[in-house]
Design the sequence.
């Protein structure tokens, strides 16, 4: 295993918020190649113990980040974790040149924006590493993943939700929705999954959360992620069924995730789209 | 005019919430054929002075409504106004037989549900009258409708929003979204337009609201509606541009709508899809 991954030296982990960068850093540390973390926003403090070093970037500048990666001698980059999308509209710590560069892009939907960032890294000779393969144990399998089996009604909701999601996710503004009894309750855009779940619960409890990525999405930089927080949000909102795409969804903190699903009697299923 | 509409006698107006049923009742009253209002939920008290009579339905029963219409001797029905969609899931004053009937429908999205209700009325020999033609003065024209002209940036947002809406509205769960600088901020499902506008404002102020109906939507029972309340919500959320589909959007209380657009410097445009 070590030999196979020996090429993974001097990897920069461009880390946003959440547990995903932690899982990746842990995997790299276990292989003996802890990453150099470039921390955007409120990154998890656990990264300190898992990284070669953590370089906080209080103000995001694409040019500054590129020069930092080069100065550190990294040849490989992993992009992971959440960066609030509103930042790219001037509502966050992003420098004016980066905002101007974003404004030159032909499209700024999720797909286009991340694609442009990856292309920029590649144009500077950096390899963007698919993190999915670093944490295979975290990928959702097909079938019942945690908690109880879905009920017959929930199975129908999952199927209905997949049908809508298939046509929705190519529009590239969100990856999840809540359905109930053959109707769509809530659709996610820039507010994020947790807020959408809370909204669906306010409209009425019940319903099924379906999360899916677009078919042509590049798995290197934007695999959907669920974790204990997703289940906590669902329990609070009174939603008891979650369906995620098998093989293309990362489940964070699997042990706690399983405990919570059981505790709140939530059904978590992996489906093939 | 009176002669042409003389056939509009004994019309039942199945009225939900909002100003749309009021505008329709007013039009009918002016023609000398005030409707018999069947009031679902919190209907506007103004209906009292515009209707032949108002029959409140504290508990919705499709069978009860049909028998009421027949007992009143109405041959024509107009469906207008909002009924909270969560009611159809048992969260409101709907009787068990009606809920059971809804559960037998092959699909319960907006399009299917309303289509089934119309078909039910027709199967009982009732004509469902397209209210759009009763209030032609309330339909949105093409071009600048109220307030200022859109800025160049807003024109781009409108075009981007129309492109997304065209692919979104056929999924039949909502008619509006908020876009900003080439990205989707918020998409409406069951929470309704006003709550979606408020959410978009919380994510960040600015952005354009685009509202559109699906191409095959039956204009008899579900034309998108905007009014003073829409502009009040937008002003509060810090959104300053609204684009609606020309010819297929009802603008309620046009005078107050125009005043508010001017007051809050909101640009309202009608577009052809």
Sequence:
């Amino acid at each position: 295993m070590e030999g196979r991954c020996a090429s993974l030296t001097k990897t920069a982990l461009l880390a946003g918020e959440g547990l995903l960068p932690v899982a990746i850093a842990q995997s790299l540390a276990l292989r003996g190649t802890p990453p150099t973390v470039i921390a955007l926003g409120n990154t998890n403090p656990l990264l300190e113990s898992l990284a070669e070093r953590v370089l906080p970037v209080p103000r995001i500048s694409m040019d500054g980040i590129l020069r930092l990666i080069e100065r550190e001698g990294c040849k490989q980059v992993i992009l992971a974790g959440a960066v609030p999308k509103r930042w790219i509209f001037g509502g966050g710590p992003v420098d004016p040149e980066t905002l101007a560069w974003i404004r030159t892009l032909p499209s700024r939907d999720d797909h286009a924006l991340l694609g442009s960032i990856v292309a920029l890294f590649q144009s500077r000779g950096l390899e963007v590493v698919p993190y999915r393969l670093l944490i295979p144990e975290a990928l959702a399998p097909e079938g019942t993943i945690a908690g109880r089996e879905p009920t017959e009604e929930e199975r129908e909701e999952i199927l209905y939700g997949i049908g809508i999601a298939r046509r929705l996710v190519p529009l590239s503004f969100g990856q999840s929705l809540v359905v109930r009894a053959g109707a769509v309750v809530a659709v996610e855009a820039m507010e994020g999954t947790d807020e959408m779940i809370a909204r669906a619960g306010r409209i009425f409890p019940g319903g099924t959360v379906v999360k899916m990525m677009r078919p042509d999405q590049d798995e290197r930089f934007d695999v959907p992620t669920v974790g204990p927080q997703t289940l906590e949000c669902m329990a609070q909102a009174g939603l008891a069924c979650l369906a995620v795409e098998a093989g293309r969804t990362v489940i964070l903190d699997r042990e706690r995730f399983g405990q919570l699903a059981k505790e709140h009697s939530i059904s978590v299923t992996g489906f093939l789209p």
